[in-house]
Model the fold of this input.
Amino acid sequence: MEIYENERVDDLQLKGLKIIQNTEGFCFGIDAVLLANFSTFKPNSTCVDLGTGTGIIPLILWGKKKPKKIYAVEIQKNIAEMAHRTMRMNNLTNDIEIINTDLKQANKALETHKFDVVTSNPPYMPVGRGIINPNESKCISRHEVSCSLEDVIKSANDLLKNGGSFFMVHRPHRLTDIMYLLRQYRLEPKIIRFVHPKINKKPNLLLIKCIKGARPELKFLEPLYVYNEDDTYTDEIKSIYSSES
Done:
């Protein structure tokens, strides 16, 4: 397997899985790991990951939850090619298919209203908010320059069957926008969990599960705390990172 300049191979400590990452591009963070762990579904489910980047979410889903098939959509050609090499390295090209297309066109590349699960760790910042990173890959990953929050939610609705599940990680300050758009596209919010850096710190991430076409009833899970006061990981975070959890 060819590894290019500025790339490295990381061991995920999960069923022998490895991932290629570009040290000068956008590498996956804890938000992707938390989203993959938060996502729940039956083992024979078919899934789509929107804006897959390096392919970290599909890899964890396959390693821990054994879906029937995952389609991973990524707009950036070089990133999609790198993710495809990762799947070849892990002998998973039949299980995880990388699709190099704009997620706004995913309903043309994939069947509509057919999938059990859609996941997404989308860009958090709308254009005009925050500092735009001069690195194109990091910019696309962090800011809504290639897709908006509405684009992600609309695409999830297009792909999901009625009763299918949508899982997303995002920032709490976008909660009003998220709820408005989810209802607009018939993705009923069912479970929310806020993620806090530490106890007594405000949340900086939220995890949300929605069901397409479901009746209204929203449940809040207990907060998830990432660090103890001594800056070590909490027991729950250690469990999430465990290969067998």
Summary: The mean pLDDT is 91. The chain has one domain: 7-241. The helical segments are 30-38, 56-65, 77-89, 106-109, 136-142, 149-159, 175-184, 235-241.
